[in-house]
UniProtKB/TrEMBL annotation:
Similarity remark: Belongs to the LysR transcriptional regulatory family.
Full protein name: HTH-type transcriptional activator CmpR
GO molecular function: DNA binding; DNA-binding transcription factor activity
Native species: Bacillus safensis
Keyword Mitochondrion in record: no
One Gene Ontology cellular component annotation held by this UniProt entry: cytosol
UniProt-listed InterPro entries: HTH-type_LysR_regulators (IPR050950), LysR_HTH_N (IPR000847), LysR_subst-bd (IPR005119), WH-like_DNA-bd_sf (IPR036388), WH_DNA-bd_sf (IPR036390)
Keywords: DNA-binding, Transcription, Transcription regulation
Name of encoding gene: cmpR_2
HTH lysR-type domain boundaries: 1-59
Organismal lineage: Bacteria, Bacillati, Bacillota, Bacilli, Bacillales
Length: 298
């Protein structure tokens, strides 16, 4: 059985069309359609529903088989990497799931260190929410994911990277600019922009522990939109320092109450991961150990 047909099926599901899959795989559309049809005929089942309005969808049996197909492809990739390793030839692909602030602040420094040692390893990136990253890990779409401890399933192997403190963000002309630390009670009555996305629970916990209710003026899902609204002076917000320190329109201050999210790398099983993924974890451990030492002034 040709593994190329498995790759075609996974790519059609990922991209949502035979045409896009053909382009990504440098094949003709007819070749992709022919490969799928042959596999369906060989197995005696239909894998896809072709709907003019909804496009390409997996059948029920297709949904059942997809995780197994991805697992086979992952195993083939690991075999190829192990063979290449014995020949001192590096090859492989690492698929990484990440959320916005991790993409901007954590991923680049890891890639720089990794590619200095292993320039021939390729990467593919998927950006999403905490929940989407966990789903991608569980279904085999990605090999490695940036996650937040507390959200990550216990079934995954985790490598803690850093603690990301929750801070208050405000317009540069706000009175908080004169305060080295902002007391949480000083937010009482302050027009507040409440995040409804990934870190909402962290913000709610802070106010709950302080036995306060913020004066919510807006509820906004997108992190960048929140930062822009704060930068226009529409209100203040609380969010992760990792993200907010990159936003030029706002200033940030520490709160007098400490609350953080712990960012980690996750993979389904490090012991069964490919050589490239194992090395990615080793590099991440070294990079962030160095970051911690620098933070302590070592």
């Amino acid at each position: 059985m040709s593994f190329v047909r498995f790759d075609i099926i996974a790519k059609v599901v990922e991209l949502g069309s035979f045409t896009a899959a053909a382009e990504a795989l440098n094949m003709t559309q007819s070749a992709v359609s022919h490969a799928v049809a042959n596999l369906e005929s060989e197995w005696g089942v239909s894998l896809f529903i072709r709907d003019r309005k909804k496009g390409i969808m997996l059948t029920e049996i297709g949904q059942t088989l997809l995780p197994h197909i991805r697992e086979v492809l992952n195993r083939v990739e690991k075999i190829q990497q192990e063979i290449a390793l014995t020949k001192n030839i590096e090859t492989g692909l690492i698929r990484i799931g990440t959320f916005a602030s991790a993409s901007a602040c954590l991923l680049p420094k890891l890639l720089v260190s990794y590619q200095k040692k292993h320039p021939k390893i390729e990467f593919k990136f998927y950006e999403g929410t905490y929940e989407e990253i966990l789903e991608w890990l569980d279904s085999g779409i990605i090999d490695v994911g940036f996650v937040v401890k507390g959200h990550a399933d216990e079934a995954f192997d985790l490598l803690p990277l850093m603690k990301d403190e929750m801070v208050v963000a405000y317009h540069p002309n706000h009175r908080y600019e004169q305060q080295p630390i902002v007391d949480i009670t000083d937010l009482a009555g302050e027009p507040f922009i409440m995040p409804t996305g990934m870190y909402q629970s962290h913000v709610e916990d802070i106010f709950s522990e302080a036995q306060m209710k913020p004066a919510v003026l807006f509820e906004v899902h997108d992190c960048t939109t929140i930062a822009r609204m704060v930068g226009e002076g529409l209100g203040v917000t609380i969010g992760p320092e990792l993200f907010l320190k990159t936003q030029q329109l706002v200033h940030i201050r520490q709160l007098n109450v400490s609350h953080h999210r712990e960012v980690a790398l996750a993979c389904p099983s490090l012991s069964q991961a490919s050589p490239a993924v194992k090395e990615f974890f080793h590099v991440a451990e070294a990079v962030f150990a160095k970051e911690k030492d620098l933070g302590k002034g070592v």
